[in-house]
Design goal:
It is built from ten helices and eight strands. It is α/β, with parallel strands linked by helices and 334 residues long. The longest helix is centred in the C-terminal third of the chain and has 19 residues. The N and C termini lie far apart (40 Å).
């Protein structure tokens, strides 16, 4: 059943934006066409959200949209870059609103060295192309969502994937990564293999809180902290701070009678954010929306208010890094 954003439900909690002069890069959002599994989300949808805060630039993240319908299967993914590039060109007609400044696209990384030609095609399709994400999320529990085509927890240990990561490193591209908390050690191994490869860890490493993990928050948190510290020791890995509102993290906002306020988010999730920032330091952290996936559980305005409240304890320079500077550096947006 397709997931739907409950706009009437979200409208029950509306907050005025705080710290309105704070410049923001949102380094993680998607576009979804109508009729798919995830909620429809186009440029106007994005702007309706980013207009609630001072969002200057965004980075589009891979979500299997816009693929070509013909040609060799391995190159059809370049259609996603072509599709988003056209949206970004349209956005330039409204320069006062958030601009799509980077694209993280799709590719089957298990092609090994063969990905070089696909990287060249992505680069030719758009000067906004910055790198690749292939989702690795997998769990042995069938009641936890595993990504199509992923058969175990060890995608990052696959020899062909490792070889493809080397190609990205050679080409100066970024590898975005999405997986669950128990898969973090394999990411650390990959990061140590290519210390020159910029790797971005999405969604705080996604601690699972549903199915067989339900009621085990303390146990999961302990494992997550240990694994996060191991990954953070790799100086080429950057942390995206966000994504915890996804249903499989188990906070359950989407099932409450009213959506969460920014104070609710801070109360329930701030410990995860502060631990990650402590381990990675602000210079290697960036706040992200993960919209519209997280929009299933909260509104954009409320989310960024929560981020600003959590960030208030850090210096002005550190806050600017997490809201703007780190993403701009890693994705070469300036």
């Amino acid at each position: 059943m397709p997931l739907e954003v409950q706009h009437d439900w979200l409208s029950k909690v509306v907050e005025d934006p705080i710290d309105t002069d704070r410049r923001i890069v949102d380094p993680h959002h998607h576009f979804f066409v109508a009729g798919g599994e995830f909620p429809f989300y186009d440029l106007d949808s994005l702007w309706a959200d980013t207009d609630t805060h001072n969002v200057k630039k965004t980075v589009y993240l891979q979500c299997w949209e816009g693929y070509r319908n013909d040609g060799p299967e391995e190159i059809q993914c370049v259609g996603e870059t072509e599709y988003v590039h056209e949206v970004a060109q349209t956005a330039k007609d409204s320069p006062e609103r958030a601009q799509i400044a980077g694209i993280i696209a799709s590719c089957e990384m298990r092609l090994g060295e063969g990905v070089r030609a696909i990287m060249d095609a992505h680069s030719e399709a758009s000067n906004l192309f910055r790198g690749i994400r292939q989702c690795a999320a997998w769990d042995a529990d069938d009641n936890v969502m595993s990504m199509p085509g992923i058969e175990d927890a060890n995608l990052y240990d696959d020899n062909n994937f490792v070889a493809a990561a080397g190609v990205l490193s050679d080409m100066g591209l970024v590898l975005d990564t999405y997986h669950y908390h128990h898969q973090l050690p394999s990411l650390a191994r990959l990061a140590r293999t290519y210390p020159e490869l910029n790797i971005v860890l999405d969604h705080l490493g996604t601690p699972i809180g549903v199915a067989s993990y339900a009621g085990k928050q303390a146990e999961v948190l302990a494992q997550w902290k240990q694994n996060i510290a191991e990954v953070a020791a790799c100086s080429n890995v950057y942390m995206k701070l966000g994504g915890l509102a996804m249903p499989w993290c188990g906070f359950g906002f989407e099932s409450d009678p009213t959506p969460p306020s920014s104070d609710d988010i801070v109360a329930k999730q701030a410990d995860y954010y502060h631990y990650a920032i402590e381990q990675f330091t602000p210079s290697r952290c960036m706040f992200e929306s993960n919209f519209p996936v997280d929009k299933l559980a909260l509104s954009y305005g409320v989310l960024w208010n929560a981020f600003k409240k959590m960030a208030a304890r850090y210096s002005a320079q550190e806050q600017d890094a997490m809201f703007y500077g780190t993403a701009s550096q890693v994705y070469r947006l300036d």
